[in-house]
Amino acid sequence: MERSVAGYLDRWSVRPGEALQVFVSSDAPGVYPVGIVRLFGCDSRCDPPTYAEEPAGFDCPEVLDVARHPTVAGSCVRVDCSRQPLAVPERVTLTLFLHVSTFLPHDAIVASVNADAVLIGIGADGHLFVECGGARVAASAPIRLQRWTFLACTIERANGTVELKSKTLAGTGSDEPGGPWLTQSGVLPAASSLAAIEDLHFGAAANGNARRGFTGKLEAPALHGGVTESDLDRLIVDASCAPVLPSTVAAWDFSRDIGSEVVSERIAGRSGETVQQPLRGVTGRLWNGSAFDWKHAPEHYGAIRFHVDDMADAGWPASLRLNIPENTPSGLYAVRVGAAADRAWMPFYVLPQKGTATSDIAFLAPTASYLAYANVIVPTVMPEHVAQMNLDGPTDRFLLSHPEFGFSLYETHPDGAGKAVSTWHRPIVNVAPCTVNWGFTADGDIIAWLKAIGQPVDMLTDDVLDREGAALLTPYRVVITGTHPEYWSLPMMNAVRGFLDRGGRLIYMGGNGFYWRVAFHPTLPGVMEIRRADDSTRGWRAEPGEYYNSFDGGLGGLWRHQGLPPQRLVGVGFAAQGFGGGRPYQRTGASHDPRVAFIFDGIDGDIIGDFGSHGGAAAGEEIDRADIVLGTPSHALVVASASGFNDAMLRAKEELLMTVPAGIADPDVRADMTFFETPSGGAVFSTGSISWGGSLAHNCYANSVARVTGNVLRRFLDPRPFPYPGSAL
Q: pLDDT value at position 688?
């Protein structure tokens, strides 16, 4: 049976006494069983399996009548004038600037008026057109790719005459003049009925037909009374973000309110809103390389970038309201709809009540990383990962059959631009137990270990840490990370630094952590943005001039390039990536220092972790190393290292100033297990490997990896301060 049911929640983080909205749809409508479970592990295919669940005991129906709900991707700007329609002059002209990098295999709607009564767009052949009442007037030649084009569409209401004019602008920094005016005229009788505008869309058809969505940039749309060609020339040379004429009726300025959903209008008070999170803070027609931060030169950032596959909110009606009982223990839970192969999982974390703790330990679930990898297509994006990651083929097939759900921040749009925004307001099929052994599922190995040793733990999440800051961590003595806490916002980084500064103890249980800077939307929970700037190991590169987030105005890219390498925070940082098998750790001479005797209590021999479900050993997939130059504290101890990886484990490219000949052994391709104390009596222990968590369950938790981790946790729970050796250095 192939999967047909999908679902999502309105949030991933909830507290007792609150409620969740559950959204479900199926390609095969019908009655489906429903269950709410608490998860204590997520992997059914590792050895031994860690997957474990128990009924949550929530009040919930046993079955749910599931309908099929359409999901329409594609971003736009929507201007709703229905309450106060905008009067249309007898001779009205719509103008705007547009820039496209590729022609789509269908009509791409640039603007639509009154529920698509009038459509202006680009055909699959690259020719501009205006359409009304089923008739069309099209330009005689295609627009030029990768160049800004000025478009003017004039309608004579008396007789339905239409004039479509366009002009290619001179390229930035080019001596080339702009192109000549290209004019096409015709008659569209139905256009004569356009007396008032009740709704206006830029970047998509109003009916939400994704097959007619737009991919490209738009800037400065405006409505005018009768204009001449001379007037149009004035608009082209005007160096403002929303140029106007004496006859201008409405003009929208995309350079204002960049961090919000608001699209400001300068004259008639008809502001609009963005739909499906098109990308803002992108270069416009005036950008010339003199400014790289949209906050410093907003006139250079007067464009919005739309994509036919943008997806921020599936928009389904709620199928179920789930009340979280007041006495619910903190933990990982899931709504499960369906059974066997036709089943949708919707996990969520129950946090303790705000300002309280039920344990001295918090597990910080890396929900920012889950968003970054949400709906990643591993076989196509990262084919070298396939053999090691225990892929769930039906999950990928289901996702590929529903591209409207939107993919991860590792894929690209049809024009080659990277996907910069991810949200949880849509089905995310790989954030579920028993799927790919990566991220969410791998983090379940840590939760399973804590359950196995009988250790109570509170669940916290990145998104709440971003929102509540250091106060969220204040009640805890120990914080444990997930296996791959890669994506971090500035409030999150500040909160963890504050936690360590006050004497907190941090167990970094992963690799490639604290790597990318991201930003959460200021008003829309569960919406996250990234700009992949600078050099890095990445799936795509941000466009020149577009390195700054629109959500918070911060510079995107690696924390390493912003003065906070992971080594400064946790002693180690990303060194290499490879999925050809793991390696065990070998103790170093520093492991015999009395300061770290507690770590190796009960450990026989020098080898740690020559087993595991993630590549056969405790070090692998993505690994971190210590580096004094990059900020590893001088008193830190590298107590064990894993090296000797095969040729599939390659150095992170941001570390290379020049290429290295093949076959040369790289001493910096290694995973360093590291420990250091902080001046306030706290400490940090870092494993330096994503694969570490996959070795915990080996031999039913009777193994060296579980022993080392348990030793560290017990000492970190001990309230005795760690003496700070740095004071003697």
A: 97
Q: How far apart are CA 646 and CA 240, in angstroms?
A: 56
At residue 385, the pLDDT reads: 57
- DSSP symbols for 551-569: TT--B-EEGGGGT--HHHH
Largest CA distance in the chain: 92
Is residue 279 within 8 Å of residue 532, measured between CB atoms?
no
DSSP-derived 3-state class of residue 637: strand
pTM tops 0.85, yes or no: yes
Put the strands of the sheet holding 320-323 in their side by side order: 5-9, 19-26, 320-323
Output the pLDDT for position 268.
87
Q: In a 3-state reduction of DSSP, which class is residue 182?
A: strand
Residue 460 to residue 506: CA distance in whole angstroms:
14
For 641-661, what is each residue's pLDDT tens digit? 999 999 889 888 888 877 766
Q: Which pLDDT tens digit goes with each residue over 247-281?
A: 999 999 999 999 999 999 999 889 999 999 999 99
Neighbouring residues of 267: CB distance < 8 A, sequence distance ≥ 6: 244, 248, 249, 250, 251
Other CB atoms within a 10 A radius of the CB of residue 296 amount to 11
Residue ranges in the chain whose pLDDT is less than 50 = 173-176, 728-729
Q: Judge whether 271 and 263 are in contact, CB under 8 Å.
A: yes
Structure tokens at 452: 């196995």
Residue 546's pLDDT is: 97
Helices (H) and strands (E) in the chain, counts: 9, 44
Strand segments, DSSP code E, in 244-297 are 248-253, 262-265, 272-275, 279-282
- Please name the residue that has the structure tokens 């204590």: 40
**Helical residues (DSSP H) of 246-392, grouped into ranges:** 367-372, 378-381
Return d(Cα 29, Cα 421) in angstroms, integer. 30
| 434 backbone φψ class: left, alpha, beta (φ>0; ψ -120 to 50) | left
Residues 6+ apart with CB under 8 A from 435: 392, 395, 429, 441
Contacts with 81 (C-beta within 8 Å, 6 or more apart), sequence order: 196, 197, 198, 199, 200, 270
Q: Which residues lie closer than 8 Å to 10 by C-beta, 6 or more apart?
A: 20, 21, 23, 318, 425, 526
The pLDDT value recorded for residue 362 is: 98
In the chain, the amino acid numbered 68 is R
